[in-house]
Amino acid sequence: MSAEATQTRSTGLKVGAVLVTADVRTDWTVGEVAAVFDLPFNDLLYAAQWVHRQHFESNTVQVSTLLSIKTGACPEDCAYCPQSIRYQTGVEAQEIISLEAVKQSAQEAKNAGATRFCMGAAFRGPKDTQIEQISEMICEVRALGMETCATLGLLTASQAKSLAQAGLDYYNHNLDTSESFYPKIITTRTYADRLRTLEHVRAAGMKVCCGGIMGMGESRSDWVDLLHALATLEPQPESVPINQLVPVPGTPLEDKKILDGLEFARTVAVARILMPCAHVRLSAGRAEFTDELQALCFVAGANSIFYGDTLLTTENPEREADQVLFSKLGLKPEPVQHLT
Ligand code: SAM
Ligand code: DTB
Ligand code: SF4
């Protein structure tokens, strides 16, 4: 153990001036979050791995597969997004796909080893008729014995209830960045709109998947604020996707440089420490990561990935590459969690 890290009797781990505990705390202050971020890298990773082992099996990674069920022509102006109708990105718009196509894709994902199937739609928010169609998809995916997730944009309270009734386990809706940086990225919906959707998801009894994107030109303090916002939600999100920006030509963020991998791993570690029971997911941008960076992120407490050759419209590592990586690192897929 480093001179800087001492384990206190059953209460936690003292790393420098920071006391890291295995308990879930929703009373983090911004100053405390900043102090965790600023820890020396070795101490930070040690603390994150320690927290991780209090709640999770150390070599198990949750495996989700994404499918775009409605692509492109989205009216919103999210500056990172290749699916916004406002940017010329070459993404071909496609209306909602058939139930049969969803079933087939979910079955393939299951056969390839995924346990959760996440359906994404390029909507500002769904119409009620679309909720009916998507509810049928959820039933079919569940019938395959997979966990279900959807990301459809803003929801009303009654739409959230309908999705929960259809058996949706998780709803993904990201805060994306800090409240102060947010207006530089999106103007067509507010941070408060997003928080309201998260409240509806909770009230309907679904699990919350909520995270953000790194590398949009924000600074570390924006990640302090975003992780603080997530960790002080009551209850905390069960799933926290950390995306690295995929700078798609034609979007306003096309020229953003790929960021420092160490800063990415650091952010994963802070998320792990602040939200000890959440699955922290390596999400978009993983295709640009070396195996070494991915391994570092797993040590930092990441324990979920998107698996499959594409995300929604952009590339993900090939399945075979992930299988080799899991084998090299001795990682096992997490079994399906209890389905009610
Ligand atoms: N339209 C819905 C919405 O915005 O909530 C659901 C789909 S949207 C594509 C889901 C998330 O994907 C966004 O919130 C954002 O975090 C992520 N995303 C989209 N484009 C991305 C990109 N180019 N790089 C990284 N993450 C991206
Ligand atoms: C999330 O946080 N990342 C995923 C999922 N939630 C829906 C989406 C990433 C999309 C990357 C850009 C694309 O493939 O279109
Ligand atoms: Fe539309 Fe979602 Fe893309 Fe924003 S992130 S433009 S809401 S698909």
Offer a few descriptive terms.
binds S-adenosylmethionine, globular, TIM Barrel, 340 residues, binds 6-(5-methyl-2-OXO-imidazolidin-4-yl)-hexanoic acid, alpha/beta, 3-stranded antiparallel β-sheet, binds iron/sulfur cluster
Q: Would you identify the CATH architecture of the largest domain?
A: Alpha-Beta Barrel
Distance between the termini: 42 Å
Q: How is the main sheet built?
A: 10 strands, parallel
So what's the overall shape?
A: globular
**β-strand number:** 13
Whole-number radius of gyration?
Answer: 19 Å
CATH class of the largest domain: Alpha Beta
Mean pLDDT over the residues: 94
What's the CATH H-level superfamily name of the largest domain? Aldolase class I
- Which class best fits the helix and strand makeup? alpha/beta
Helix proportion range: 25-40%
Question: What does this protein structure show overall?
Answer:
The protein has two domains: 47 residues, no CATH class; 274 residues, Aldolase class I (TIM Barrel, Alpha-Beta Barrel), CATH 3.20.20. The chain is an alpha/beta fold. The protein is 36% helix and 17% strand. The radius of gyration is 19 Å and the shape is globular. The strands form two sheets. Strands 4, 5, 6, 7, 8, 9, 10, 11, 12 and 13 form a ten-stranded parallel β-sheet that branches. A three-stranded antiparallel β-sheet has the order 1-2-3. S-adenosylmethionine binds next to loops.
